[in-house]
Amino acid sequence: MPRVLLIEDDPSVREGVELGLRRRGHEVRTVATGEAGLTALREFRPDLLLLDLMLPGMNGVQVCRRVREDSQLPIIMLTARGDDFDVVIGLEAGADDYIVKPARTEVIEARIRAVLRRMEAPGGGRPAVEFHGDLAVDRAGLTIAKCGERLALAPSEMKLLLHLTAAPEQVFSRQQLLEHVWEHSYHGDARLVDACVRRLRNKIEDIPGSPRYIQTLRGFGYRFGPL
């Protein structure tokens, strides 16, 4: 079972989430501050990080940015307010998903599994390496390179790019992408998609403001197709 690090300052939430995940077989370590969380990341080496957004001192957004400096560890944010502007900032900082508190353990477990599945290699007998303009997409090895230089992509970024490149020129609505990439079968939050697209463009586009690869069709969604 995946090893989970939980950074949460509320003792009741921390204990409840820890107990629920342990009952499902996870090895869990919990800390109450961002600073302690960064130390625990090095010592515990988790498979996934559950990160409270509103931490004292170093907040969740700052922790997320620090982690993304040298790690593509899957990150799920915990927030008490689903419409909080800070959610968008957290997604832009590199979080793969978020959960609004309070949340049942079954919901947290499902999101953990969904995020980790994004790093599984897709099959389908496609070529080992596909070339799209300057991008080389290795589906089996789960690597993306631009002009020969390997890119560091978070799990949601990797899964989104793999999904888009699997059907070049096909237009996907935000809801379709939420269902296929984030496995949100309900009417989900389009901010997940938009934030992930912006992060991807910053990594794969020469000029993110004038994208060559991931194109927006206003009122419809996104498509992939080198111009």
N-to-C CA distance: 43 Å
Spatial extent as radius of gyration: 18 Å
| Total number of strands | 11
Silhouette: globular
Number of helices: 8
- Major sheet strand order: 2-1-3-4-5
Q: What is the H/E order?
A: EHEHEHEHEHEEEEHHHEE
- What about the largest sheet? 5 strands, parallel
Percent of residues in helices: 25-40%
Please report which band the strand proportion falls in: under 5%, 5-15%, 15-25%, 25-35%, 35-45% or over 45%: 15-25%
Low-confidence stretches: none
- Which structural class do you get from the secondary structure elements? alpha/beta
Describe this structure in words.
With 227 residues, the protein is an alpha/beta fold. Helices cover 40% and strands 20% of the residues. The protein contains 8 helices and 11 strands. It has helices at residues 11-23, 34-44, 60-68, 85-93, 105-117, 155-165, 174-182, 190-204, and strands at 3-7, 27-31, 48-52, 75-79, 97-100, 129-132, 135-138, 143-146, 149-150, 214-217, 221-224. It has a 5-stranded parallel β-sheet, sandwiched between helices. Strand 7 (135-138) and strand 8 (143-146) form a beta hairpin. The longest helix has 15 residues, at 190-204. The model has no long low-confidence stretch (mean pLDDT 88).
